[in-house]
Amino acid sequence: MDSSRNETTQALVDGLNEIARQNGASSSVAKFDRVPAIVQRAGNTARFAWDEFFFGRVRSSHTRRAYGRAIKRFLEWCDARSLELSGISPAHVGKHMDELQLAASSKKQALAAIRHFFDGMVTRHVCILNPAASVRGDRLSVVEGKTPEISVKQARKLLHSIDTENVVGLRDKAIIAILIYTAARVGAVTKLRCRDLYDASDQLMLHFDDKGGKSREIPVRHDLQLLLADYCRSAGIEPGTTNDAPLFRTAIGKTKTLTGRGMTEGDCGKMVKRRMLGAGLPERLSPHSFRVATITDLLDQGIPLEDVQHLAGHADPRTTRLYDRRKRRITRNIVERISI
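Now predict its structure.
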């Protein structure tokens, strides 16, 4: 009876792994196939719960990586103290959190990962209770995001600094202009396909597949439309077709020619950093800095918060307010007036 149940559970594990390999990135799958020893010792049901959590419940590759680091770190901590999965208590979770040398936001994310992981272990009857459920995280009050803002003057300087005499320059300027004029995340820009740039009878549109499975359409303003037209013409791209080829492709070394392979988020981030360095801008700026600048600029012009929220793709207006840097700047005039 037990042998039959174990064989069935192992078959489910293998089946779930195969689905994950077919649906996700192979490197990510290979990383999470290395199940920690403490989970292995708990049996096939625990391994099934592990695979179910990472490949079934967690669909975002970014969340999978972040949660994976936190959970593996905690399980290795437990293993080093000769603990078994079913014997982990709230005290162990609390002590681990106390020892973590991380920022409060990172510790809260780590605790959330551990909680969700043990929810699955409880559901699959590996553990009786979730040891992380009653553990409180560090107090954290966020009134402003940490992403540095690029100023309007700096953004204009960056755009003007890019040489558009070759297809790579046209590509880079078009990407940066999209980041500025649509407030899109860099991940959504790198997902763009040729079919995502199309004429909607009266105006050109960009279709973004954003985080959280959101789908958004944003009109293309006139100057961005000209940039995209120049880039597409130089790259031999026909927008508006059913072509599923990537809109923005990688370059072949320093040859100023493009490949057929789409740029990744990392490729785009490195390109922006390189262009900022060439324009003499601060190294701390990132692709996300454009999003902060665009949201702040629109709010400063009196655009209603709900309209800016819709452009940014935020589900909650409080998230949009984190990007608003208008009233939270500490000016030199304030500190100069200290009378001590």
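The first strand starts at residue 197 and ends at 199.
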